[in-house]
Amino acid sequence: MLPNRSSLNSLAAALALTAIPALGFAQTTPTPPQVTLPTVTVTAQKEPADPQRLPVSLTLVPLDPLWNGGMTTIGDASMYAPNTYFTDFTARKLSNPRFRGIGSSPANPAITTSIDGVPQLNTNSSSIELVDVTQVELVRGPQSALFGRNTLGGLVNVSSARPSLTRWTGSAVVPFGNFNAVDVRANASGPVGKKAALGFAIGHSQRDGFTKNDITGHDLDFRNGTFGKAQLLLTPTATWEARFIYTGERARDGDYALNDLAALRARPFHSSRDFEGHTNRDVNATTFLARHAGQKVTFASTTGVVRWKTDDLTDLDYSPLPLATRSNAEKDTQFTQELRFASGPAGAVKLSDAATLKWQGGLFLFTQNYDQDAVNNFSPFVLSQFIPFAVSQHSPQAALDDTGVGLYGQGTIAFRDRVDLMLGARVDRENRKAALNTFFAPAIAAPTVVNTEKSFSNVSPQAAISYHANPDAMVYFSVTGGFKAGGFNPASPAGSEPRARGWAAA
């Protein structure tokens, strides 16, 4: 039924009465005040700096997107950065970065993740859950002039949040999602006396798998992990501070969601196999940071011990037939020590009335001990119709021991705060020993035994010039070298295990 004329007039009057105050309010609303965000600090070039003054391709992902935006892994944070991609494979240990098309590999990555200044020499310990993290820096392009080996494609720089020295504070998040996903994270920190503070964080993440095994009805690629962090911050004087950081993670993930490619195209997220395995990982890392912030010279020491181990078990043929399985046990212990000196706030060297020099230099030492035992288990008659019994092939059983040293320096000459000229270089040398064994049990063929040693060295240069048009705009040109360390590939055919270092400039 159509409304009569009187009801239309009443409606028009009501609209007019509501529109007049709205119009007056719009005319009298004051202009919102401008909000100036605090200056952020990054350590993409080791020393704390304003990212607006660094001649590097850098994306900073700060705390708020990490904590409040649901960013729980480095792969999540990388979505904010152009030309970066993380392969989020079914198991966390195989989540590797790719910057500008340059990929990575576990034992000899092209992109290194640095956690609180400690480089992860193997990617098996780099893709950990982000808990109590203040920011992630994604630096694209070679960074070997400062960070050395295995930064050919770039650097992922992760920084933990400092415990609060003023008051006790904390937070917690409990998001839920589909596939029965639950993610619980909580942290707290506060002062202990006047010169110390403690920080704690804990989390648990789990979800069902995306891929169903049609033979058993089970989901294959589920995830289940528990992780935590503990910190102690000491500030004995106004210029000295020390931080002890412990990080641990225990992941108990499902099997690899692999299948025949044609079958996956026909039925995505389905598999048919008689055997269901797992991918387990444990990571324990201890970091000690010491820093002296003098007016003329600053000093920093970074000591890191990282221990991790993994245990994989999977169906090697990915079929309903009991043909082959593969187990892979790996463990690694790395020790790193870095000593660094740099010019302080009042330590820039005056070269002339128009030019000043800021500098930094350091020494880096590391050791790494890696062990692996990968076993392919074949059912009777699989290898040959003349082998009527089960056979295990250890391919490889490997022990790799590395030691290395790096020495670097960098200087930046500022001309009237408009033009910066940066020059730097790093010299690295390392020695690698390898014991690689490939054999069958029972011994159906002669074993292959490799015991070898090789040394590698590299010089990585850096040069950049930048022009600061204003505080928010900069134009720069840079040439930087990067390299992947040489070494040994345990899975290579006999006689081709050694591999030379790789080098590139950008």
What does this structure look like?
The protein is mainly beta and 506 residues long. It contains five helices and 27 strands. The chain has two domains: 51-159, TonB-dependent receptor, plug domain (Ferric Hydroxamate Uptake Protein, Chain A, domain 1, Beta Complex), CATH 2.170.130.10; 169-505, Maltoporin, Chain A (Beta Barrel), CATH 2.40.170.20. The protein has helices at residues 5-28, 63-67, 74-77, 144-147, 261-266, and strands at 57-62, 84-87, 96-99, 111-115, 118-119, 133-140, 154-160, 169-173, 176-177, 181-191, 196-207, 212-213, 223-234, 240-253, 270-271, 278-293, 297-315, 324-343, 349-350, 355-378, 391-415, 419-441, 448-470, 473-484, 487-488, 498-499, 502-505. The radius of gyration is 28 Å and the shape is globular. It starts with a helix and ends with a strand. Residues 1-27 have low confidence and may be disordered.
Main β-sheet description: 16 strands, antiparallel
Based on DSSP secondary structure assignment, what is the total number of beta strands?
A: 27
- CATH top level of the largest domain is Mainly Beta
Distance between the termini: 75 Å
Shape by Cα distribution? globular
As residue ranges, the low-confidence spans are 1-27
